[in-house]
Amino acid sequence: MEAINIQQAVQKKYGELAAAVKSGDGSCCGPSCCSADDPITGNLYKKEETADLPKSAVDASLGCGNPTALINLREGDVVLDLGSGGGIDVLLSARRVGPTGQVYGLDMTDEMLELARDNQRKAGATNVEFLKGDIQAIPLPDNSVDVVISNCVINLAPDKSRVLNEAFRVLKPGGRFAVSDVIVRGEVSPALRRDMELWAGCIAGALREVDYTEKLGQAGFDAIDVETWRVYDSVAADGDGKFASAFIRARKPQV
């Protein structure tokens, strides 16, 4: 499949989701609609974490985990969220890094960026900046970020190696990588891999755990850990029990 077709399908899907959230019509993500019972997106955040966030940031939460819970963010850290969507993980990170820190959200979809910036204004977050761009070509300088996070987005990229190489490039020496993503365990059909609806739904583009680990190592990361935490039983016709959410952590070595 051509990368341009994948990106167009993803942009269309998430642009529609952002518009639905903004209009108050709700949202739908993955193979089913987002709710507490959704197999991918349900029950990812504690109520006390989201209680004072804008409702539209919570409604637009389309991830498969909570990357802000994977890592100890510190006062003054510079954080980058790859595929920041409506901004929930950016806003949560902004609280933790404090006024001396900075959080960047990177997204390629205009509707999501508009929604995220509106949520930033509602939250009064002054240490946040949302950038338009492709996670395969991050618009930040080398060695400029302490932490890279992402929530169920790297699987959407046509070229995962480029994403991981870019994450490595922008991290400072000793910088940390902490993402939630969907992985696949075992073989799935070529037809599933070609299904654009399932690409946009975070399924068809998922990597195997061994491939994720290998690509992180090839990018230069060490201290790589992949922890499966939620297995999906009914997300695709031939995918029962083969897809799961995973916490993926790694580090850029000190020079």
How would you summarize what this structure contains?
The chain is α/β, with parallel strands linked by helices. The chain has 9 helices and 8 strands.
Describe this structure in words.
With 255 residues, the chain is α/β, with parallel strands linked by helices. It has one domain: Rossmann fold (3-Layer(aba) Sandwich), CATH 3.40.50. The chain is 34% helix and 23% strand. It is built from 9 helices and 8 strands. The chain has helices at residues 3-23, 47-50, 55-59, 88-97, 110-123, 160-170, 190-194, 196-200, 209-219, and strands at residues 78-82, 102-107, 128-132, 145-151, 171-184, 207-208, 222-232, 243-251. Strands 1, 2, 3, 4, 5, 6, 7 and 8 form an 8-stranded mixed beta sheet that branches. Strand 1, helix 4 (88-97) and strand 2 form a beta-alpha-beta unit. Helix 1 (3-23) packs across helix 5 (110-123) and helix 6 (160-170) packs across helix 9 (209-219). Residues 26-37 have low confidence and may be disordered.
Helix-strand blueprint:
Layout: H1 3-23, H2 47-50, H3 55-59, E1 78-82, H4 88-97, E2 102-107, H5 110-123, E3 128-132, E4 145-151, H6 160-170, E5 171-184, H7 190-194, H8 196-200, E6 207-208, H9 209-219, E7 222-232, E8 243-251
Parallel strand pairs: 1-2, 1-4, 2-3, 4-5, 5-6
Antiparallel strand pairs: 5-8, 7-8
